[in-house]
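Sequence in, structure out.
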Amino acid sequence: DNNGTSYITVDDHTDFDFTDEITIAMKVILPASGGGFVLCEKVNEYRLQVVDTNTLEFAIYTGGAYSTALTYSYTPDTAFTIVATYKSTSSGQKLYINGSLEDSDSVSGAINNSTGDFCLMATAGGNNIAKSGTSMAYFGLLNAEVNSTWVTNYHSNSLYDTSDGNDEITSISFVGSDTVTPDAELGLFGAY
């Protein structure tokens, strides 16, 4: 669980720059949002965030601005999976929730590459920190667009089981704004 004060920052590195394709995958429980907060962002490249009124947004930065965000209205304090994808040449942005496509568009163009830091649960500098009660069981950042079979399998083979009525999921303890070396063995980033 995030306590509302912790986040992770990774100094700018080319391992977090994507040109044509990206997938962001998370298993989360999100609290009610009285104000926005960021789940994952590389400034002026890609962003997955919560905005007012319990709405999740995913957007790619291309052509000098963030594209119109894909959105999903979530139920607070309920576990769900998020898979956000982008492929510049054919697919545009896609937002899957619990294995189903919720929103998509036909945006195209290369993803901007910036010198900004990668941030998990906040923006650079510790702004827009995830609200207390935000829980994340898994985070994946991939340099390719995954297909619908991958999305279905990701949701079906989730790390949490709510069949007993318990929505608690395994949480990642946040270590604050520490500098993390890409390719370090943290269990946060995986290559697929």
